[in-house]
Amino acid sequence: MSGGVLTVLASAVSGALAGGVVSWVAAPQLIGRQQRGAARSEARTQIRTLVSPVLTNVRQYSKHARGSMARDPEESQIHADDLVLCASVLSNSANLGRVRRWAVQRRLRRLFGANTVDLCETHGDDAMNPKASIGILINRQYMAKQHAGLEQPDTGQFDRALRCDPDSPEVAALERSLGRLVNCY
């Protein structure tokens, strides 16, 4: 064999060996990226599934087609359904990327109030259960009487807008905010 053939053969063998090593090292990382991407996509789908019906209801309310969404303007208590929705979206946001997770949590704080989001973080999956959420709210009210300064769940843009007339700018702003939440922004 001539020197040129040996050089080409040695180059081919070393290239194949280097390619195999790189593939062996990079394959697990690629699989991990694919799994994270699938989990993030699934989280966005779950959030969209949770929020889209609520957005539809708010759109119907703003067009005077769903009067049952209106809330008593004199009342100041948070609704248990708000806690369930907030906790469900918060739970599903855990698999989002850092920036989207931060954006969703920021949007939830605006929609439902910082204390409500903190309460959902504290109680985790229990807050997603409609029956348990009522117990959580009652317990928090009772504990507030026992311990002065204990923060109560607060109301945010979601609750305030539903206490307004359907034609109000607050309802229009709520519709835009929910639209952003559907897209995880």
Detailed description of the structure:
It is a single chain. The protein has 185 residues and is mainly alpha-helical. It has one domain (39-182). 73% of the residues lie in helices and 0% in strands. The chain has 7 helices and no strands. Helix 2 runs antiparallel to helix 3 (98-112) and helix 2 (80-92) packs across helix 5 (130-146). The longest helix is centred in the first third of the chain and has 60 residues, at 3-62.
Topology (SSEs and partners):
Elements: H1 3-62, H2 80-92, H3 98-112, H4 114-123, H5 130-146, H6 157-162, H7 169-182
Helix pairs in contact: 1-2, 1-7, 2-3, 2-4, 2-5, 3-4, 3-7
Helices, by number, come to: 7
Task: Choose one word for the global shape.
Answer: elongated
Straight-line distance between termini? 65 Å
Q: Main beta sheet, described?
A: none
Regarding quaternary structure, what we see is: single chain
Portion in beta strands:
under 5%
Helix residue percentage: over 70%
Radius of gyration: 26 Å
Total separate domains: 1
Mean pLDDT across the residues is: 88
Low-confidence stretches: none
* SSE pattern: HHHHHHH
β-strand number: 0
Give the class from helix and strand content and strand pairing: mainly alpha
List keywords for this structure.
single chain; 185 residues; mainly alpha; 7 helices; 73% helix; elongated
